[in-house]
Sequence to fold (382 residues):
Amino acid sequence: MNTDLAKSIKAKFKDTHNTDPLMVFSPGRINIIGEHTDYNDGFVFPAAVNKGIIAALSKSDSDKSTVYASDFDETIKFSVNNIAPLPKESWGNYILGVIAEINKKGKTVGNFNMVFGGDIPSGSGMSSSAALENSVVLGLNELFDLGLTKTEMIFISQKAEHNYVGVNCGIMDQYASMFGVKNHALLLDCRSIEAKPFEINFKDHELMLINTNVKHSLSDSAYNDRRAVCEKISEMLDIKALRDASEDDLFEIKNKVSDEDYQKALFVIQENERAEKASKAMLDGNLEELGKLIYGSHDGLQNQYKVSCDELDFLVEQTKLNKHILGARMMGGGFGGCTINLIEKNEVKAFKLFISEAYKNKFNKDCSIYSVELSDGTHKIN
Ligand code: GLA
Fold:
């Protein structure tokens, strides 16, 4: 966690509201493998990182709430008794959505003040949105003694995203951010909402992120469209979710669906298998196999699920020319954001130089490179 950021958020809060706040850190996440499987009741393999949202909150003694976003230098004011969605794209919807969902559960929050900021680059595919939602729900749970469990809290965050932000996301991001375990990734079964922690400590390799610094504006509708395709095909197969289908089951209805939709459903079935195989490869310490699965994931996301973009594909292609990199793929919802790379520790420095220059030459803009440190989930800080 960025302690300087925490200090400045706290100082800003005290300056504005003259009282000591409750401080919360809520992490972003990476995902090793298992993309677009969460809303198909499948497996994902995420981990919380040491970058995220820092929020300062306290009860308000007036009949208004104020929330200040330090990254945008913007404030919203509202009363918790009277909230409605803001225009699309407004960061305020992540906050208001959480309050609306808490209200729906018949819990009562009072007015509050909040200041927050973060160090996850927005649009990087590291889930700054889930981190923000979780910071709000955990903060309000503490301030107003709501008695919500962490599992209830992540479903509140997810519903906020569905109903106020308009993205019909799965549960991976909110789960990873809330339940992260330091130095571990979590193999999460998105049906049972049970996870198995895996220590991430590869001897000679590490995980590295490369941000394309691209954010495609159409990604929300493209995401919802894909989810709808998965649901339509599940219905045709008379199953609850694509997690329950095999490739053979899908083949039975091949003539009844378009080739595009067929490939999308096939991707989900195969990606779900890859996530399970990846956990086995990790247990066996077989990083070559893990790397192959990661490349397979990108190939499917690019060619079958069609959620990649030229910049992501370029970054992945470049790694294939380097034998010190075992696997690379786009990470998160897609259409921009980061690739995740399984790279030899000794190669990191040289590859950083190489890829920065190659990317700049190709796209005339910079990529950003982050090393990964795995952190605990959303929690109070001092
Ligand atoms: C976004 C969503 C997640 C998940 C990923 C794709 O991050 O919020 O629920 O579906 O995309 O794996």
